[in-house]
Amino acid sequence: MQLPREVIIGNRIIERVAEVLRRLGFTKSALIVAGSKTYNIAGKTIRELLERDGVRVNTFLVESATIKDVQALEERIKALAPQVIFGVGGGTKIDVAKLSSAHQEVPFISIPTIASHDGIASPLSSVKGFEKPYSVMAQAPLAIIADTNIIMQAPWRHVISGCGDVIAKFTSVEDWRLAREEKGEYYGDYAASLALMSAKLVMRNAELIKSRKEEGLRVLLEALISCGVSMSIAGSSRPCSGSEHLFSHALDLINPNHAMHGERCGVGTIMMACLHKAEWKPIKQTLEVLGAPTNANELNVEKEDVIRALEMSATIRPERYTILSKLNLSYEDCERLAKTTGVI
Ligand SMILES: [Zn+2]
Q1: Of the residues 36, 86, 92, 319, which has the fewest C-beta atoms closer than 10 A?
Q2: Would you say the pTM of this structure is higher than 0.85?
Q3: Residue range 217-231: mean pLDDT, rounded
Q4: Per-residue confidence (pLDDT) for residue 129, from 0 to 100
Q5: What value, to the nearest 5°, has the Cα angle with vertex 258 and ends 249 and 164?
Q6: How far is the centre of ligand 1, averaged over its atoms, from the C-alpha of 19 (Å)?
Q7: Do 161 and 135 contact (CB within 8 A), yes or no?
Q8: How far apart are the CA of 228 and the centre of ligand 1, in A?
Q9: Is residue 130 pLDDT above 80, yes or no?
């Protein structure tokens, strides 16, 4: 198990970055990976704080997460040989920094500027250009510094998406249990419980999160980080990514750029919970409370896209056994499911 050593969440916590680095024993050099936007939001501050502390700092700007970006960053790491790498941003920057640093065996520190998915703390990276659209193993962040003041300033939709990605653990854990029962797959009760507890906490605190207070955001950040840790404990994305994620990946392939990852996962969770014969209505109600999408219209896709995505979901990742593998749904079944749950 590879776990984060320092997790710091709080208002203006970014100011403690030099102190954290000192504590971890990195006093000489660092490489900051950011986008041009996230560099201005947080990267620049980190650079100034570290330089004031006598650390040699370089910056690498990245705007997408493809294999090419990962390779380019690896070349930069080889040339600069930094002691530590910072990933500053939301999805792409953290994904690229995490995977490149893992390949080059350099520790990685995660500085999320948004809270839209559990990749901010997970050991996996989602990078485009591989055969499949899902994540690959990279490394767990050595530290996570989540400044609520920075994250609060990002569009609220990111927070809602983050909630969807956490609520998804209701069905991903069910799928994992199913795989244990029916396929004898390894199942880790601790990792599963941690992921499930995160989902329950977000659900219980939906009103608080909705109120847009720092306290609510903290609940979500702790949940996202716990989900990341649960994947580190399991050694795979199993506890956090089941049939609802397969639906999200399929829908993204059918109709790209229509909604955020966590928004699609939330809608997927409603339908997959129904397939598991679990309580799907409270999940839908929670998403409604949060203001998250619960149907095709709100996801900005056609009804037909939802049905086709459901049909395609089981084929996305055949080795991952889920309720979709078990039920082998026909087009008509998919249509009925989407209608029953009010998604179309
Ligand atoms: Zn996810």
Answers
A1: 319
A2: yes
A3: 97
A4: 78
A5: 60
A6: 31
A7: no
A8: 10
A9: no
Q: Which residues contact 244 (CB under 8 A, 6 or more apart)?
A: 168, 171, 172, 265, 268, 269, 271, 272
**Span 200-212, average pLDDT:** 97
Q: Give CA angle at 196 (137, 318), nearest 5°.
A: 45
- Give 241 Cα–ligand 1 centroid separation in angstroms: 6
pLDDT tens sequence across 86-109: 999 988 999 999 999 999 999 999
Q: Which residue has the tokens 């989900």?
A: 227
74 vs 344: CA distance, rounded Å: 45
- 224 CA from centroid of ligand 1 (Å): 10
Question: Residue 244 C-alpha to ligand 1 middle, in angstroms?
Answer: 9
Alpha-carbon torsion angle 123, 129, 131, 135, nearest 10: 20
pLDDT per residue as tens digits for the range 254-266:
999 889 999 999 9
Q: Are 133 and 253 in contact (CB under 8 A)?
A: yes
Which residues crowd ion ligand 1, with CB under 5 Å? 165
For ligand 1, the distance from its centroid to the CA atom of residue 165, given in whole angstroms, is 5
